[in-house]
Amino acid sequence: MKELSALQTERLKYRPKLPSSLAGGINNLMLSEGNKTQSVKDQEQIQELFKNTYGKPIVTFKTVSTGTQSEARNIGVILSGGQAPGGHNVIAGLYDALKQANPNSKLYGFLGGPSGIIDGKYIEFTDEKINAYRNTGGFDIIGSGRTKLETEEQFQKAWQVCKNLGITGVVIIGGDDSNTNAAMLAEWFVKNNAGIQVIGCPKTIDGDLKNEQIEISFGFDTATKTYAELIGNILRDANSAKKYWHFIKLMGRSATHVGLEVALQTQPNITLISEEVEQKKMSLRQIVDYMSEIIAKRADMGKNFGIALIPEGLIEFIPEVKSMIANLNDTLAELENNSEYTNAEENAKFEIIKGRLNSEDSAVFSSLPVMIKQQLLMDRDPHGNVQVSKIETEKLLIEMIGTRLNEMKQQGKYNGKFSAQNHFFGYEGRCAFPSNFDADYCYSLGFNAYALMKFGLTGYLSSVKNLSANASEWVAGGVPLTMMMNMEKRHGQFKPVIKKALVELDGPVFKELEKNREAWAYNDNYIFPGSIQYFGPSSVCDITTETLKLENAAKLTAV
Prior knowledge:
Blueprint: H1 6-11, H2 20-23, E1 29-36, H3 43-49, E2 57-63, E3 74-79, H4 87-101, E4 106-110, H5 115-119, E5 122-124, H6 127-131, H7 152-165, E6 167-174, H8 176-191, E7 197-202, H9 220-241, E8 245-250, H10 257-266, E9 270-271, H11 274-279, H12 284-300, E10 306-311, H13 314-317, H14 319-334, H15 339-342, H16 346-356, H17 359-367, H18 370-376, H19 393-410, E11 420-425, H20 436-454, E12 460-465, E13 475-480, E14 485-490, E15 493-498, H21 508-523, H22 538-541, H23 546-558
Parallel strand pairs: 3-4, 3-6, 6-7, 7-12, 8-10, 8-11, 9-10
Antiparallel strand pairs: 1-2, 2-13, 4-5, 12-13, 14-15
């Protein structure tokens, strides 16, 4: 038997809280339907692609006093995409619900992500297996993967595997892309009279799978608290040593929800928001100037230290760099079989590329430090694109700011000392012990997923709302996956995808940062959150994110 830490031993004993509508038991539920829905955009195209599952109503659950035991069923579950704290509790909630509905029901876990349902690799869950993973981080109970479910051959194989196991329902736990695949699989099963339901669960620490019905994706709470603890430690160190600027890159390529939430929890001196950079069309030079001015003003105050938060995907939101990368992708594709380029030395490769890029993009490429040029030319992703997530944006800014400060020093505009440290916090937050909030939320999502199946629904995403209230007041239900979709160009073709939720610059969360930026830049109002608390008063252990508090408070004010 695996040796457990003292904390893990205690966490296994934790009993997650359920919304009152679900706490009455899986066999004592009543379904309430709302109005029919439509997709957020491109309604005609989405309806044409999802003829059998489009336009379904939003649903919620209520408890009734009398109920009957359900028939025994076999259900499959898939973990898809990157890890997020709480995934094990989604499976535990699903398992407990189906066993409560009928003890003879079975839950199968497909191994290694969506490929498991295609290749027929699975395990059958038992009480012993589930109990060993309750309230733990990670996806190691069955593993995850990034295989897309989108082809006729894949659907046929998945159907055959489900038939062999007698599976009549599949739960896919994933982000926007994974749940887009869930919608496609659900549509295919209905079209082919497979008799297999598909329900999704909203997962991603990036926080970009959200809307009016999905207030937050699971894992965001734990991940941001984990990052906030680490950054709080660095803030304390910076304020103690008083000699370093710390540039911290945070996970979140497509949206800056993570960086924004962590900023509200810790109050660093500089926080860059990718969506703001894009809206204001800020150039790389403008970003460098903005940061350099704060560093110089702090130096005038005798403060040669500070903290800057940088979103992982920043570089793709800078218009001039985005244009250059698009041009570079095309250029590298053209040079793929060009022996003059492939056999050239590094500096010669740089010159060849500069000569092939258009004049504006060539100028941007030339302005970058050698280290960044090297990273831009690394092996491309499977789609032939530059791997932007591997570009060390924090190091790029350190080098360019250092150069700019030297210029300012020669002009008599800067008289400080600039010494920088760089960090990237990403993987540290993906598999942490889930917070009480995520432990409760994930368990509720899994339990609720089975409730949706119990009423014969398919093509739905498990939804639990009113999350800034006590767990007993949460509202359980489901939202049609097609409701969240639009058409986007992917690899040269328009495809249906769940629309990513970016930071809203006119929303209450960004406005809170904007209101405090100036004070935080110079007054060192640092907050040190400390580690996630699991035991103690609810006001300490069950608190949710600043994002949820601000967004739900804004809704109440609007009403």
